[in-house]
Amino acid sequence: MKALVTGGAGFIGSNVAKLLLENGHEVVVLDNLSTGYRENLEALQQAAFVEGDIRDGELVAKLMQRVEVVFHLAASVGNRRSIDNPILDSQINVIGTLHVLEGARHAGIRKVVYSSSAGIFGELKHLPIAEDHPTEPDTPYGVSKLSAEKLCLVYAQLYPLEAICLRYFNVYGVNQRYDAYGNVMPIFARWLLNGEPLLIYDDGEQTRDFVNVRDVARANLLAAHAEGLSGAFNIASGEAITINHLAELMRGMVDEDVGVEYQPPRKGDVRDSLADISLANKELGYSPSVDIENGLKEYIAWAAKEMI
């Protein structure tokens, strides 16, 4: 299989590209390095790297001529970032995705695997969250990811192109670097490794469904190999833990004795999250294999080495 990985120098994209290479596939990575890292490319020496932007339709169309499958991970990520800059968020996540889809359509690409987000659901009505849960995003990020997802599925209906949208919940793991707008995991890791107290917003009893990036990468390959299938699927662990429990686990994995400080709740933060992953299991053969404690140990060891 010849594959294009947009956002392939980023956290999840680099893990997808690495797994593709390990399975003998040819890989082209497209990334503008705005949030991706050259360090993530070091393990991807066999891949062809192109520095560029998904908003450059001409470049995207040119790269499509070289591949059969597209793993579209390039995005502006995060609720807080989208609230600060909603125009940029939509330019990348919606218009950029349109360039990817148009390039794929005209090049005769057989499948696009799109990285969507649980942010499309907004405030949750019930748990666990199945794919048919109402989609009422309450941040520009959620709106842009839902719009891009709908575009992918409409293209699959209108053109000879399969599209699978993978709705990631809280992804963590190797290659996830500190980002003040990002996931709680690298933020906690940096504070812990620097001996700084952990700041927890609200009471810490809010829950998240954390999934290791190695499981997410496997889900991408399963989606690419699912012949004749289009649709949207939750990719998560199917288990929820509180932020307080996460902090306790992570504090127990470092030598520093750090405390916890509680802050008022933030706008745009979902209170609880837990995915129903039965559809992905049935249709894609997906099931998570990395438990939270082993995944955290691996991540903290990597973070300490990389000094994130």
CATH class of the domain at 2-173 and 209-237: Alpha Beta
SSE order, as H and E?
A: EHEEHEHHEHEEHEEEHEEHEHH
How would you sum up the major sheet? Answer: 7 strands, parallel
| Major sheet strand order | 3-2-1-4-5-6-11
Mean pLDDT: 96
Structural class: alpha/beta
Strand content: 15-25%
Helix fraction by DSSP (H/I, runs of at least 4): 25-40%
Tally of helical segments: 10
At CATH level 2, the architecture of the domain at 2-173 and 209-237 is: 3-Layer(aba) Sandwich
Number of strand segments: 13
Q: What is the gyration radius calculated from CA atoms?
A: 18 Å
**How would you sum up the global shape?**
globular
- CATH topology of the domain at 2-173 and 209-237: the name is Rossmann fold
Low-confidence stretches are: none
CATH superfamily of the domain at 2-173 and 209-237: NAD(P)-binding Rossmann-like Domain
Q: In angstroms, what separates the terminal alpha carbons?
A: 34 Å
